[in-house]
Amino acid sequence: TVRDGSEDGEFVDGYWTNQVIAAEVGSNEIIPLYHSLFSQESPDFVGENEEIMKAMDMGGKAAQNKSIWVIDRGADRDILFESLLENKRDFLIRIKNNRDLIHDGEAIRS
């Protein structure tokens, strides 16, 4: 749900968005690599996880797979962790407070 552009600013249905941007160490420049809008109401919509994995595939190709994925806790899902690990991607995900971080074989509650 988003506010529309009218003076009343009513809440209306909106679209989900995926964005992948690149930033290089030591540079203030950012480069857009991928952007998509999607709706759960679309007849060809498969799922949000698939949309996120598609964005990672497209962004990874654009960055020649030389990247560290930094993702907010909305990506704290087993299926996305599995995809990142299977594709040997480096990543940093802000985990939810109900997940343990395993460091040196020891569980650390976030």
UniProtKB/TrEMBL annotation:
This is Transposase IS4-like domain-containing protein. The lineage of its organism: unclassified sequences, metagenomes, ecological metagenomes.
